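[step 3/7] fold_predict: job queued, chain A
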Amino acid sequence: MSRTHPKALVTYASCAIGLLYANRLARRGYDLVLLANNPDRPIALARILQAETDVAVEVVAVDLSTDQGLQDVEARFVEEKGFDLVVNNLDLPAGKPLLEDRALNLDRLIGMNVKAYARLAAVAAHSMARRRQGAIINVASAIAFAPEVATGVYGASKSFLVALTRTMQAELTHQNVYVQLVLTGAVRTDVWPFPACVPEAIPGMMTAADLVNAAMVGFDRREAITIPSLVKTGRWASYERARKALLDDLMNSEPAPRYLRQR
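[step 4/7] structure written:
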């Protein structure tokens, strides 16, 4: 039986960003599969969406920090013949400084922010490339460009996500698969993100609703990189030019003169 609606998978759907993506996509006519460690808020949202729209919403309680959880989700790409859109929004918050952290906490954060993120990105990319259609939204953090201000391995994990997404964009450019990188700044994500619960105003912190609304505009425009908080877009262009110039300078067959021993 053919689908009557496009279908989207949203990860980390218990957080404000995931909930808002689910809400926006449902109202655009997407059937949803919502993945969440804690299903309470996604279930509450599913009731609202099923009352107000004609889409189907399935909430799946799953721990993506485990191999079994990942394998169960990966199997869905085969069982359901893929998804039309995947919102990859996995995130565990920063832990302790590296000198104070323990192996178990490091493994858990890396397992979610790197391993699980990459596994789901890979299975989504493979499924969509095979069908030559689909879109992937990878939500990351601008902390990737200043990992030293974060604690432990958190900033490094965000740098990985940026690198992964840009690699995906290069690999999928001829497969008719659109990959959007959404870079967030400081965002309020710890509240129910709907009008009944308005987050307090904190200078410099964007609401999750504004973030997702802006990101969806970038999605509609098919932007490769969407940075909702960036006003001066020329600065990103300058960064890209400087990055590419630096790469050109790194392609040398001999060490720079300052590293040559003086005889």
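[step 5/7] annotate
The helical segments are 16-26, 40-52, 67-79, 103-131, 154-172, 208-220, 233-250.
The first helix runs from residue 16 to 26.
exit 0
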